[in-house]
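Worked example (supplementary).
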Amino acid sequence: MNVAHELAPARAQLEKLARPLGFVPTMGALHAGHMRLVEAARAQCKSVAVSLFVNPMQFGPQEDFERYPRDFEADNEKLAAAGVDLLFAPETATIYPPDFSTFVDVGKLGTRFEGAARPTHFRGVATVVAKLLHMLEPDVLYLGQKDAQQTAVLTRLVRDLNFTTRVEIVETVREPDGLALSSRNAYLTGPERAAAPTLYAALQTMLKEIQAGKSVEEAREAAVRVLSPQARLEYLNLVDASSFSRLQTLRPPAFLVGAARFGRTRLLDNLWIRT
Amino acid sequence: MNVAHELAPARAQLEKLARPLGFVPTMGALHAGHMRLVEAARAQCKSVAVSLFVNPMQFGPQEDFERYPRDFEADNEKLAAAGVDLLFAPETATIYPPDFSTFVDVGKLGTRFEGAARPTHFRGVATVVAKLLHMLEPDVLYLGQKDAQQTAVLTRLVRDLNFTTRVEIVETVREPDGLALSSRNAYLTGPERAAAPTLYAALQTMLKEIQAGKSVEEAREAAVRVLSPQARLEYLNLVDASSFSRLQTLRPPAFLVGAARFGRTRLLDNLWIRT
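After joint prediction of all chains, the assembly is encoded as:
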């Protein structure tokens, strides 16, 4: 595996790689969910590039940018073992030169749910991914379903701005008790970790109740009862998969999306209802 | 010359064209200034593509989108005669599908001067050019110096978002009396047309006075005296060529930029001070 910290050597390596090129953007702290994306890229493409960049632009001023988990050596080893061809791990100044000022905004979709909780988050995500797509020029962009609204934002970015890269969404990887893998799970204390799987359980309950003919509101009430009392629920809703506007009846493709805090740690999860 | 109104046939044609590909984005109503851009592309590149799209997103609600001059047949003939390989002339729905919502914003630079007079103008310009660069994937983007701030905005777009396209700025073409060519000159009445060259004369006076050692403010006062009394001056300033922030002393690369209304018609001009 080649490792490049600057753009010029990354592009020099990319020129040698067979196409199609699959690309997995990450912020590091890699877990089995990331590795599932790498596996999908490996299976479908001739070459695989991974970026590792903790993107300051997608963190709010009160958020966890500083304490976000970082372990470059471990990440490097995992990616090399998985047969990744290129690891692009730029410094912040390589991505954002001193007088950088441009951003990409996907509009209303980026203001809902996660965008309401984190007002500049999706602008930061869309901007850095637009840059990485230009830097690495991959054929396929691999995204994890766990961050459902992010997949919608980036699918829209690619469609609205006519990027030629294709988006592939890969299903969430879970712990045996159902907790969706996330780098932020590392923040959880023992009791928080024990309570965290109830977010997934709540989503499953909500889907089952909707499919049994209950109204979205009734299903939501049943779901809330499944949540651990330790969870502070932020939202739990049925939304259109593309716009993330709320649905009152099930009309796929849709997501059931949830966010809750367990102590200081904010976790997301979702169910993807494709048909 | 091939003419494509949809993306798929445009891309099919582009695949057959030799590289490097030069690209000239236009809103039609082509004059000798546009044709100078085409000539530069023709001289420096193996193939030339031109887009013709009156972009609604870069017009404000009270602006001249509806009455902007349109003459597809004449434009078509001029471009064919100039040896253009591909004319891409999309309908609005091809560029902006019904639920389009994404925009690109270059930040502060886009809020000054023209951006102050036309608050969403540069957002519209940056967004449509980002789309066209993805659609046509040119090697070189040709821009006219006449719209100086637009060249700064698009140079910054390309740099900040790491587009691989190179930007070439081509000098302003003028009438014998100095008036910069512009599609909007067609709006001028006889007396307005007679007064319009004083904008260029004012810029020249301002530069001469600065070079003679006068302060920017003194030079500006001398320049204003050269302007026709028919002109309603909007701004006349010395600015940094990259940020468009005002300069108190000449520090190239810089622009002297001016905007004035002649009747209902708002005209721009500038001098580019490269060294």
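Two points are worth noting when inspecting this output. The interface with chain A takes residues 7, 99-109, 126-127, 130-131, 134-135, 137, 156-157, 160-164, 242-243 of chain B (CB under 8 Å). The mean pLDDT of chain B is 97.
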